[in-house]
Amino acid sequence: MKQYKNLIVILALLLLVACGNERNVQENLESSSTNREIKITDDTGTELVFEDPPKRIGCLTEICVDTLKQLGLTPTAVSSNGITQEPEFFGEKGKDIAIIGGSFFEPNLEDMLSNDLDLVIGLGGVHDNIREALGSEIPLYIASPGDYHDSISTVEKLGELLQKRDEASKAVQTFEKQLEEYKTLSTHDKTALIMYGSDVNFGIDTNKSVMGSLLSEITNYPWEAPTGEGHNNGGVQFSLEEVLKVDPDVIFVETFSFGSESSPSLSEQLAKNPIWSELKAVKENKVHEVRTNIWANGRGIGSMSIVLNEAMSILYPESVEE
């Protein structure tokens, strides 16, 4: 009888353990299901919710391409070749990435749908209006960096969403280390200016733009203005008369080509204006045409790293050589 009672006790204990394990398994499954829900808020304040990290990503803006590269990822489709085929990004392999047709301002909706995308990343002031067109088919994340700090934040946020936190952290740390080193090396005594345009009606990057705010960390960049609207945050229209008042030591020029690549560069067009020849940078041959894809369109920390290297080699070559 005693053995029988002991057997009953053992069976009861086993039943309790089994029930407890079943309850723990159920709780773990529920917890796992909850943890899989990923929420992210884009730069318009719109919250996006995902059950799993997006895998197939379409880029309508270069900061998307740039950021994915920093995270060790490749976009499924892009709206233009842009920085994709630049040697620092995907080079020849960039030619294999699908193209989303249409224009930068009006990308082709059918191409986005046909590429079976999990996420589309667009630029603030340009692509906001396609959210309704995409509807529930494809979530739209809008990036709208105002200055270089916002570009860093984009890497961190997308790193969380795409479960690439370590890659994001490493990329940000590497960039910030490079910036700090250059800030130390620079004497900050040369005045620089970034100009952009496709004809004599040009604009400039102020110190509230991505690249303008970046250069203001390594040199004198006195071009102030409120954050602009549209796809070029921090950019304003300008005149050569206003440039001459400051008379920068070095001018970086971004030429936008909307037709033949053989069209004159912005600096060549501005040379027709007599005021151009009065500028110190022109007299001393310190006007530099730069890669528009990197300097104007990139906006991500990969592009900013390239800009830092190129700008420092021109502004303070003796410091970089040391």
Automatic annotation (TrEMBL):
Protein name per its UniProtKB record: Iron complex transport system substrate-binding protein
Organism classification: Bacteria, Bacillati, Bacillota, Bacilli, Bacillales
All residue ranges annotated as the Fe/B12 periplasmic-binding domain in the record: 56-319
Family: Belongs to the bacterial solute-binding protein 8 family.
InterPro entries in the record: ABC_transptr_periplasmic_BD (IPR002491), Bact_iron-sidero_bind (IPR051313)
Residue ranges that the Swiss-Prot or TrEMBL entry lists as coiled coil: 158-185
Localization, UniProt: Cell membrane
Keyword tags: Coiled coil, Signal, Transport
Pfam families recorded: Peripla_BP_2
